Amino acid sequence: MYTQSFNVQDSPGQKPTAPAASNENPELQSRFDSRIDAEGKVEPQDWMPEAYRKTLVRQISQHAHSEIVGMLPEGNWITRAPSLKRKAILIAKVQDEGGHGLYLYSAAETLGVSRDQMLDGLHSGAAKYSSIFNYPTLTWADVGVIGWLVDGAAIMNQIPLCRCSYGPYARAMVRVCKEESFHQRQGYEALLVMMKGTAEQQAMVQDAVNRFWWKCLAMFGPPDADSPHSAQAMRWGIKRISNDDLRQKFIDATVPQAKVLGVSLPDPDLKWNEARQHHDYGAIDWNEFWATVNGDGPCNKERLATRVKAHNDGQWVRDAALAYARKQHQRAIKEAA
Amino acid sequence: MTIELKNWPLWEVFVRSKQGLEHKHCGSLHAADAQQALQMARDVYTRRQEGVSIWVLPSASITASAPDDKAEFFDPMADKIYRHPTFYEIPDEVGYM
Predict the structure, then answer these.
(1) How far apart are CA A38 and CA B9, in angstroms?
(2) Are the beta carbons of A219 and A150 closer than 8 angstroms?
(3) Are the CB atoms for B67 and A31 separated by under 8 Å?
(4) Which of A37, A71, A125, A334 is found 20 to 30 A from A138 (Cα to Cα)?
């Protein structure tokens, strides 16, 4: 799971612009500011600036949508998993992603937005989700690489969110992070097994790494210089570490893991910089990233269509459950009378 | 609770993590009725044996203190330091008390 530090504008998908100046009640605003400065938490019933609420609704719902859409590329492989063991693991992982989406939708609902409004936003294409799911999962190695790199990047993003100033979001993230470690480890281990296999299996792993590496680096969001929202989100205690710093952390952590696995990372400029004590890396293709965010990735249409179909096909189940609950309720009233 | 809703109502979920501990609030979910809410709570909040018992109740049935009244509601307790054991000075030779 998978927020990009991604709090991009929802429809129309564009690069974010700088936030508008606040015209809130100055006394309430100053009380709120001092609470944030003191590392205090904000809870649902507390007063908060409208822009803070809106930012959280957008970020948490995008995060929730990402979890739910994230079930699709991996779900494609459940029936084709290479063994019963891997199938059971993958089912558990996909179920976790659904659970993470539910924790996050509940957290967003505490801000006064309904579950239906959020789902409408997703289904109409107005709301965004993490772009990484708009790429196809072509081979079984992709499932392993999603666990290792995509979930690995997500963990980097999510650990600081456990200290987010908004209580319900922070608590949801604590639960999510506890479960996320299983996701990354199962993916890495699946790849280790393949790397001990045939040359063809090894090539399959390398190919998956080559396709996903740059997309994972983009998951951390635009460079700090191009993310005007970041400073405000930092001020509010929603964001703790900048996009570029998280990206660097992820690269530094991943390089030794790739070495143990025996794969190369597809970046000729990737090398250790002794002076910086970090790895240098090549330029990310942001045009491709924004094109995918704005709907032109290889799987955007398919993912959304699958999601909408699942929701529509489930309508009769939701209706039937409500009708049953209503009938039981009326029967109980009649018996009591 | 109202049954005339179009959508599944919201429930609050409380989980007892092990025998001997209290039920603790852990989140909320939507479900058509209480039985379904229980089953869903099991799937959403106890996938790794985080609980031995679950309570669910309609979110609408909770009455909460208002954050705006925090001062009037809780401050009266702030100046009653004599309610704490450290308020009292006891000679050292008494030992632990």
Answers:
(1) 36
(2) yes
(3) no
(4) A125
For residues A242 and A180, the answer to whether their CB atoms sit within 8 Å is: no
Picking from A42, A96, A102, A118 by the largest number of B CB atoms within 10 A of its own CB, the best residue to mutate is A102
Partner-chain contact B32 A116, CB within 8 Å: no
Q: In the structure encoding, which two tokens stand for residue B64, read together?
A: 């909460």
Distance CA A7, CA A129 (A): 9
Among chain B residues, CA nearest to A323:
B32
In a structure prediction context, what are the per-residue pLDDT tens digits for chain B, which is 97 residues long?
444 567 899 999 999 999 999 999 999 999 999 999 999 999 999 999 999 999 999 999 999 888 777 777 887 777 888 999 989 999 999 999 9
DSSP B19-71: TTS-EEEEEEEE-SSHHHHHHHHHHHH-TTS--SEEEEEEGGG-----GGGHH
ipTM of predicted assembly, 2 dp: 0.84
Residues A222-261: b if buried by 16+ CB within 10 A, e if exposed? beeeebebbebbeebbbbbbbbbbbbbbbbeebeebbeeb
Do B29 and A102 lie within an 8 Å CB cutoff? Answer: yes
Tell me the one-letter amino acid at A56. L
